[in-house]
Amino acid sequence: MDAVEEPMSAFGAVTAQTNKLSRQYQALLDQSTPHTLYRWVGTGVLLVFFFARVFFAQGWYIVAYALGIYLLNLFLAFLQPKFDPSNEALDNDMEDGSLGSLPTKQDEEFRPFIRRLPEFKFWHAATRAITISFVCTWFEVFNVPVFWPVLVMYWIMLFVLTMRKQIQHMIKYRYVPFTVGKARYTKNSS
C-alpha cells in the first residue's frame, strides 16, 4: 500500500512545484507589463546576444533563419487588425451585395484599431522565441550546414514582398496601426 501512495505523492510534489513556478513566472510578467520600453530594450539586447553567438560561432544559420521567419510572422500579426476589413467586405458582399468598408463619413460608426496580436503578446512570444533560439545554438544537432547568403537573400525578399502586401492592404482599407499620441489642434486649424 505504501508503494502505491509514493508515486502519487511524488506526482503531487512535482505538480505543486510546477504550479509555484508558474505563479512566480506570471507574477514577473504582470510586473513587467507597464514597462514597455524596458521590456523591448531587454529583448533587443537578447537578440544582439543571439546574433553575436551566431556570428562568432559561424553556425546555426538555420536557427537564425527560422527565428527571422517567426519574428516576421509575429510582426505581421502585430500590424494587422483583429477584424480584417477585407474579410468583412467579402462577408458584406455575399450577404447583401454591397461592398463594406471602414467608416469614412461623420455619421458612420467609429471602429478603433484593434490589433490581431497585442503588443504584450508580441513581446512575450518574440522574447520566448529568441531565448529558445539562443539555447538551440549550444547544441550541435541544430548546426545544419547551409550556404547562409542564400538564406539572407531569401529572407530579405520575403520581408519586402510581405511588407509591400501589408502596406497596400493598409492603404486600401485606410488604417494606420501606429499612434504617436493624442492629436493636437491649434486655434488656426479648423
Automatic annotation (TrEMBL):
Look up the record and give one Gene Ontology term from the biological process aspect: protein retention in ER lumen
Membrane-spanning ranges: 37-56, 62-79, 146-164
One GO cellular component, as annotated: Golgi membrane
UniProt-annotated location(s): Membrane
Q: Where is this chain primarily localised?
A: membrane
Show the InterPro entries listed in the entry: Rer1
Q: How does it sit in the membrane?
A: Multi-pass membrane protein
Write out the entry's keywords from A to Z: Membrane, Transmembrane, Transmembrane helix
A Pfam family of this chain: Rer1
* Keyword Cytoplasm recorded: no
According to its UniProt entry, the function of this protein is described as: Involved in the retrieval of endoplasmic reticulum membrane proteins from the early Golgi compartment.
Its family remark reads:
Belongs to the RER1 family.
Q: What is this protein called?
A: Protein RER1
Organism, by scientific name, is Cercophora samala
Give the classification, highest ranks.
Eukaryota, Fungi, Dikarya, Ascomycota, Pezizomycotina
